[in-house]
Amino acid sequence: MDFTKSIKEFKLAQEVIPGGVNSPVRAFKSVNCSPIFISKAKGSKITDIDGNTYIDFVSSWGPMILGHAHDDVLKAINETAARGTSYGAPTILETQMAEKIISMIPSIEKVRMVNSGTEATMSAIRLARGYTNKEYIIKFSGNYHGHGDSFLIKAGSGAMTLGLPDSPGVTKNTAKDTLIANYNDLKSVERLLIDHNNKVAAIIVEPVAGNMGLVLPNNEFLKGLRELSDKYNCLLIFDEVMTGFRLARAGAQEYYNVLPDITTLGKIIGGGLPVGAYGGSKEIMDFLAPNGPVYQAGTLSGNPLAMSAGLTVLNKLDNNFYEKLEIISKSIHQGMLDNITSTKTKAVINRNGSMLTLFFTDKKEINNYEDAICCDKEKFANYFQLMLDQGIYLPPSPYECLFFSSALEKEDIDKFINANKIALEKLNT
Ligand code: KE4
Predict the structure, then answer these.
(1) How far does Cα 355 stand from its chain's mean position?
(2) Domains of the chain, with CATH numbers?
(3) For strand 262-266 and strand 392-393, is the pairing parallel, antiparallel, or unpaired?
(4) For residue 113, how many C-alpha atoms fall within 13 Å in the half-sphere facing its CB?
(5) Cβ atoms < 10 Å from Cβ of 418
(6) Is 0.90 surpassed by the pTM of this model?
(7) Strands (DSSP E) along 172-244, which ranges?
(8) Whose CA is nearest to atom 9 of ligand 1?
(9) What is the pLDDT of residues 323-378, one digit of tens each?
(10) String of DSSP letters for 68-93
(11) Selected catalytic residue, list 144, 183, 232, 322
């Protein structure tokens, strides 16, 4: 593969953009190579500025569940844009989006649109604190809820990738109100609730963790969090920015049949445009201005382009869609398992629906941050490069997930499985 133009553009970008990127994980730092600059994408394929085309397993970190540049999504954006791009005033599209989300996610009775997952989670904890009149929040090591100050403590995703799980710039006074528990460890949660008796506003959790690599909740974890929230009178927030509309129409809460008090959403609901959202019961959500005292606002919140793109995507997510996506996901998973066996590779695969992570590890299971942080990062970096050279574009970090789209064809799946086998064989030589 020739990366000449990407390397040149990265040098230029670093002169004018911190680290040359507008989001750290894009810099390819943990995979020891220069990032590729993208020129276009369509369906399951993505093409860089050197003309190299790859099968895309990043899907813009989740949003592109239908694949790239879907004709109907482009049509919706173009038709909406022809009428204007932003008004700073209510539109029917926002009501339609709210009605659609409410129809898909039973725990949501009212929903507020924002412009990113970070805005959604920041707003959700402010709402929880305002509604409960309590100050502490509990999060889990390795969970990533965006770059809001309260969350950059033991954070996953790019923070974990770069070894910056606790960021400078977050004040001690802010950090002290964020309590850290261990994922899949209910005792660690109850200890914090007892120690901070009746002062915890909310527990926020990735119901399926996708930011320390994919880590699944064990069978009692989410139900246990629901029970602890009720017992100790705090709210339960499911951060479904990644899992919402991906694992099922109503995300992880449908898949595991556990209902949170507040749900945060993002990614898929914008169809590739900047969108976030948070929703819950009418009682909780009506605490938000202008009805209630908790303030949150946004110039471009609910903007018509993102609403029309997102609605076009959500309207295609019916049960047949998820059945088709599961067939794709299962066949990739099985092919990778067969390759691990045939190449005698020490690795663990975690998958839920169309989210999957391959961990290079001697461990038999990866169930939390401590397990994930021990995986072989160097081996992953070599694997990433071997796959990229074969035309497979993976998330450039061992602490992220592959996201499958419905645009993946059988030839894409076959090519991925074959490239995966070749890469594992080369790693084992
Ligand atoms: P954004 O602010 O990036 O839209 O959403 C933050 C966020 C919140 N909650 C969860 C569960 C998330 O996964 C995210 C963002 N996900 C990362 C990928 N792991 C975004 C990629 C990036 O930071 O560039």
Answers:
(1) 10
(2) 4-65+318-427 (3.90.1150.10), 71-314 (3.40.640.10)
(3) unpaired
(4) 30
(5) 14
(6) yes
(7) 178-181, 200-205, 235-239
(8) 145
(9) 999 999 999 999 999 999 999 999 999 999 999 999 999 999 999 999 999 999 99
(10) BT-HHHHHHHHHHHTT-S--SS--HH
(11) 144
